[in-house]
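Q: What does the assembly look like in three dimensions?
Context provided by user:
Components: three
Sequences:
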Amino acid sequence: MRTSASVLHLDLDAFFASVEQRDKPSLRGKPVVVGGVGGRGVVATASYEARKYGVRSAMSTREARSRCPHAAFLTGRFHAYREASAIVMGLLRSVSPLVEPLSLDEAFVDLAAADLPDLELATCVAVAEDLRARVHEATGGLTASVGLGTSKFIAKVASDLDKPDGLTVVPPGTERDLLRPMLVTVIPGVGPATAERLRRAGIQTVADLELVDLEELVRLVGKAHGNGLFHLARAQDDRLVVAEREAKSVSVEGTYDTDLTDRKLMEGLLTRQAGEVAERLRKHGLSGRTVSIKVRLHDFTTLSRSSTLSSPTDSTATVARMARGLLADLDTSGGVRLLGVGVSGLADWIQEDLFGETTEEEVEPLPEVEVPSSRRRTWSPGMDVEHTTMGRGWVWGAGRGVVTVRFETAASASGPVRSYPDDDPELSAWRPADPDETAPAPPA
DNA sequence: TCTGGGGTCCTAGGACCC
DNA sequence: TCTGGGGTCCTAGGACCC
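A: Here is the predicted structure of the complete assembly.
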């Protein structure tokens, strides 16, 4: 443990919402909610004005709307957030070379690696106050809450104690007294599931936790977690501030406003996601051996399937084919609300291509991968054409890469509904030719 | 029509090798 | 003929974080 309060944690207050209020004066002083605005969206950030109404991060947007109907609901402008974040991270790096970003709005700074005359409390506090002022100025008015302590854990707890726009210092030696009355959920890694297990064992505060011996803790929550809790409960935290961390996986996923049932559509969406993942791999000079898909069913049960290649790939075609192959295994007849594709087992080198440039248009050979015979199956989609008798379809809804079309049939002007990826060539044939024509009313 | 998206880390079981 | 370990890799699921 260090003896000086030289770990600094900085957290930008209500970050996304604050950027929106900064850029749009009419939103200042008003409740602002940034997050998914679709039927299945959740809140990413609520401004302090919205929090007064009980709107919280991770709450469904539906609930946020019912709690605070007059709030502005925004989808978010990520490059504005990235830009503001880059300014702040730059300021932090001007203080110390050792900066560990945790997300766009949060970072640790190791003042022991900074060029300071000493690490006395007063010196660290002066640095922190100066930093807060500079963040405010350089970002056009964003505020930050800062904590200073002898470890990451303590600095992070501290930054939370005086929000928004505050600074909290935990003097060396006072850590355990600070933690004892707090709930176990202040400890990073203690979420709802762990808190409930501990509660059943009569453990609610850090003081309670301190009384439990290591063996008992490991029995309760497992080896790694138990060990971690044992030490954090005693404010023992040796984790270093690390500037560079290598990515371990790259993934893309999406939740759809209505459940998907069409396998062809699912394959189309997985193919598109595979393309985004592969593009990000290539952009960062990465490739990976393990391709995974994630499928969340209508009832929220979440399945994952993965398959590992003998050598890493960054090819759209390979990732897409593997993703579709993994889907073939799953029963999705009840409907799917989320699909995702990921690549892990990353290597930061790109495989030598013995045959020169390979373009994405070329069909690559099937990857070498062991497939259990029970899974060896070919999915041959193929549109059924029963809905096409009238030769007309109405674009019914669109969003998140999906276009829903209602078809007319010989029997009914308001026939079956099908959904397509919005770049599906089949789709263009199904847009109504005459833009003035009105679509039939939706069914009740 | 409760429940995002992009990640990390851990656990547990089975395969496989020595 | 019977009975081992340990280590590593892979897969699936779950908890957690911001």
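Follow-up: Residues 44, 57-58, 102-106, 188-194, 225, 290, 292, 302-308 of chain A lie near DNA strand C (CB under 10 Å from a C1').
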